[in-house]
Amino acid sequence: MTSKTLTVPAAALGTWAWGDSGEAGDGYFGSRLSESGLREVVEKAQSSGFTLWDSAAVYGMGRSETVLAQALMGYDRSEYQLSTKFTPQIAGDGDDPVSAMLEQSLARLGTDYVDLYWIHNPADVARWTPFLIPLLRSGRIKQVGVSNHNLQEIALADRILGEAGFRVEAVQNHYSLLYRGSERTGILDHCRERGVPFFSYMVLEQGALTGKYSPANPLPEGSSRAAVYNGILPRLRTLTDRMRDIGETRGTSAADVATAWAIAKGTTPIIGVTKPEHVDGLVRARDLELADEEIAELETLADAANVDTRGSWEHEM
């Protein structure tokens, strides 16, 4: 049972970085964003057919949702889809923390429903999943997804929802050339067999797979991602050089190749967009077909880099 069918585009738009304040060193990405700049991103994305926007209550502790609502102002609610998340780690102590967090998200997003509501982390699947059922029945959420869950946790959430006539309608995990845990543990196959969309996040590894950064041109100092990735950039050079080569033969970039790889694997990448040209890249990636041999070569090079990019918030898949 579902109350509204989710329209899944080739890629979803990530707004994690929209929660940054814009001041260097303040926020995960160290982004400098403006209201007019993000409005331009929205206009280009909407006109290009990318209309699913992904946020979370924890992104900037609500700032991402607020900024996203401002950027979407003037569009009819039927013209876009909203995806946001319940994060157990910041839940309150009330009788229904899930509903309380959702209501706060709805207020920030300026809407009375979200198309896709996720349990952000599997802190306690049996505890939190039942709270979603009345929200589905009321229509305040249209679909339920689970993020950062392993196969057993997905199955448990599905079983709990199934007792009320619903199911897990989407899975969102970290998945990239450098981190393929969801593939190796059967989660992608599980989703494919059940017709459940798999949303891949960190496909570009927060910029490390864009080809833009190198030991000579590291990620922005003072940002958390710099601390995670700058030390492994030398080991990624062979991979990113090959991605750049493949991109150049198609008139595109290494970043677009990484995104096209995720699409070719049957996933829906969630790509962080903070500039209009990021949307241009999604258009190119959507139309880029990689040969099976190229996919295999990139995966071999990624394995040879031998890096572990699992986030501090993730457990083993």
Automatic annotation (TrEMBL):
SUPFAM superfamilies noted in UniProt: NAD(P)-linked oxidoreductase
Gene Ontology MF term list: oxidoreductase activity
Any Gene Ontology CC annotation: cytoplasm
Keywords attached to this entry: Oxidoreductase
InterPro entries listed in its UniProt record: AKR, Aldo-Keto_reductase, NAD(P)_OxRdtase_dom_sf, NADP_OxRdtase_dom
CDD domains: AKR_unchar (cd19103)
Domain NADP-dependent oxidoreductase: 13-301
Protein name as it appears in the record: Aldo/keto reductase
Source organism of the structure: Amycolatopsis echigonensis
